[in-house]
Amino acid sequence: MDRQELILGQVLSFHGDPITEGVAAARIERQGSVLISGGRIIGHGPAAALRAAHPDARLTDMSGHLISAGFVDAHAHMPQTAIIASWGKRLIDWLNDYTFPEEMRFGDRAYAEEIANRYLDLLLAHGTTSVASFCTTHPASVEALFAAAEARGMRVAGGKTCMDRNAPEGLIDTAQRAHEESAALIARWHKRGRAIYAITPRFAPTSTPEQLEALGALWAAHPDCLMQTHLCEQLEELDWVRALYPQARDYLDVYERAGLTGPGALFGHAIHLTGRERQHLRESGSSLIHCPTSNTFIGSGLFDMAGLAADGQRIGLATDTGGGSSFSMLRTMAAAYEIAQLRGAALHPAELWWLATAGSARALGLGDRIGNIAPGMEADLVAIDLASTPAIAQRSARANELWEAIFPTIMMGDDRAIAAVWVDGHRRQIPPKGNETVSG
Ligand code: GUN
Ligand code: ZN
């Protein structure tokens, strides 16, 4: 058994979903502490009481910092790390001009490993301890992601992106190859350590109905895998789906017919939905993943957080890098706030933080393991500096209550706010801020 570690700080935990149950479902213990050992959270509570009860525990004093579960990014593209912030395109041109040429490079195993390692280091530097990521069509890209995650002890979901049409030759597989290669990766990686396999058809336009059916059959054979794809992101894409699938009642129906909806299905974007789609998403127990920086960056539209939450949908939050313009879940919360404002609703900081942690974990079916501070949960934690820049510090110093002190970090914070990260109970060295150089 590892020696126990007692982390002192302002401890944020959730006792319910603040979006549906009210913000009192989020609690902050000001003079709090979290006791961890053997990769698990043993308990949390007042610092004085836990210090007295566990005098032999190693003390890590983060007093004044916010101690939270590590961020959970529910939809991202590791292979797009190096093309984040590419200028001037909407979805389909952005895919053809920037994304597919970059994804072609992942046939080279060494390049895949370099980017997978760089990507996970960037995530940890931003306080993100878990991600559900797309890879490329190449199985080597999945190997690279899971190996990099295993080396860091991270709970990561990922999968081979399947495409058998409407993409360059070098990225195309077939229905059969998608099934076989995904099945082999499931056998090798699913539930190995903390790894979770996500069956990954990219989106309806790049798969034939046969490929989607093959992946539906694969998911039926491995129902504890996740299934991740894109849904109703941009209006031009909806027109394309209608032309490619004239029999389908709507976009979601393309996936529904192939057996690709239900608990564990993660639908990125979900902006332009019909009433029927909303009903089936909710009734099937599928998850909707809100990608706000991507939706403004690529010009996709405004996710209906208030309406979808009122429906009772399961909603996660995600960067969608590199369509999304930031690796930071703080910046992503800020963008979610701004999009909700444009739709006339203000998301409370407790609601935003829940989406970035426990909400995303629940969307991934991992709400009992990650995304919250509670006894028995896995010890993936972050310590957040609530005064990480002069601009943030001067505003939070004015705050009358704690959420008001946290909100400037949500709106203006970045990796400089991440003071410490624990993964699987181990403190991880996070790279120095700002001035490192990387090649490539
Ligand atoms: N739709 C299909 N592929 C992608 C992708 O890589 N990024 C985004 N944002 N949307 C997609
Ligand atoms: Zn995406």
UniProtKB/TrEMBL annotation:
Q: Outline the extent of the Aminodeoxyfutalosine deaminase/Imidazolonepropionase-like composite domain.
A: 34-57
Domain Amidohydrolase-related residues, every copy = 67-426
E.C. number(s) listed in UniProt? 3.5.4.3
Arranged from A to Z, the UniProt key words for this protein are:
Hydrolase, Metal-binding, Zinc
Record field: transmembrane: none
Reaction(s) this enzyme catalyzes, per UniProt: guanine + H2O + H(+) = xanthine + NH4(+)
Q: Name one GO molecular function term.
A: guanine deaminase activity
Q: What does this protein do?
A: Catalyzes the hydrolytic deamination of guanine, producing xanthine and ammonia.
Recorded hits in PANTHER family, A to Z, give: GUANINE DEAMINASE (PTHR11271)
Q: What is this protein called?
A: Guanine deaminase
Q: What is the lineage of its organism?
A: Bacteria, Pseudomonadati, Pseudomonadota, Alphaproteobacteria, Rhodobacterales
